[in-house]
Specification:
two-stranded antiparallel ribbon; mainly alpha; 53% helix
Length: 264
């Protein structure tokens, strides 16, 4: 990496951890606290060698577990109960080794579970979230491979670098991103704060309005509002069912499009 590129990258990372970044972290204080609480419980499990049923549930099944939020019903409670021994074994493997080999083995296990009719498919976001919880120094909270791909695309364009997008290997791409950011970030920010700020890079990009998100825990999301409502003309009740897209009699030209609900 040449001097000019390194300088641009340093400036970009400095901006991420600047005043706006600190403000964002302040607004996500509860997320940070719950994130660190889960990491503390994982560390205790490592030290004692005991993975409680509650920790197993929070890692694999709970929708919002302090690291990230996944779709409701991604993994059923019944599957977790039926495969409790298997999930406990997979969790121990993940705790001990953040490698592509282990990641592949966990994916293969889900393929076997699917073949037995015990899970709906290979739940990549569920798997990645466990790796993210166990290894915050190497993994971000962007656990959806599709969302991570969009994040890296944005970073590559804005920072003028060429990170792998994670399409083939989510884990290796996360490591590459964390390595670059850790190399340039201020030492005062820990892994949890860094990962929350990395999420902000994606969450604040309005161009992703049509994309499905693996959002951070719901209770930690900022308040919601509808953009541009004041600019819309008063609704006019049509006498006959209108063609779509509907054009108000008071409006001509481009059809009116309600802006999506977005985080402010």
């Amino acid at each position: 990496m040449d001097t000019e590129t390194t300088s641009k990258l340093s400036n970009a990372v400095a901006t991420l951890f600047g005043t706006a970044g600190n403000t964002f972290l302040e607004s996500k204080a509860q997320w940070e606290a719950d994130y660190k609480d889960l990491l503390s419980r994982i560390q205790e499990a490592r030290e004692t060698g005991t993975i409680s049923d509650k920790l197993l549930e929070d890692l694999w099944w709970t929708r919002s577990n302090g690291v990230a939020t996944i779709k409701t019903g991604a993994l059923s409670r019944r599957a977790l109960e039926q495969l409790q021994q298997e999930f406990r074994s997979l969790t121990r493997q993940i705790f001990s080794d953040c490698s592509e080999k282990i990641h592949r083995q966990v994916i293969d296990s889900f393929m076997a579970f699917k073949a037995q009719g015990l899970v709906v498919g290979v739940l990549h976001s569920v798997i990645n979230r466990v790796f993210a919880a166990a290894h915050p120094s190497q993994c971000t909270t962007v656990v959806s491979p599709n969302i991570f791909k969009l994040l890296v695309k944005d970073i590559n364009r804005q920072w003028e670098i060429d990170l792998p997008d994670g399409k083939e290997d989510w884990l290796a791409s996360n490591r590459a991103l964390k390595e670059i950011i850790n190399r340039h970030k201020p030492a005062t920010f820990d892994d949890v704060q860094t990962n929350i700020l990395i999420w902000r890079l994606y969450a604040e990009n309005d161009s992703h309005e049509s994309e499905q998100m693996d959002e951070p825990p719901r209770t930690y999301l900022p308040s919601l509002s509808i953009k541009s409502c004041s600019a819309l003309p008063a609704p006019v009740k049509p006498t006959t069912p209108p063609a779509w897209p509907y054009r108000s009699p008071t409006h001509s030209g481009t059809p009116i499009k309600l802006s999506r609900i977005v985080a402010q």
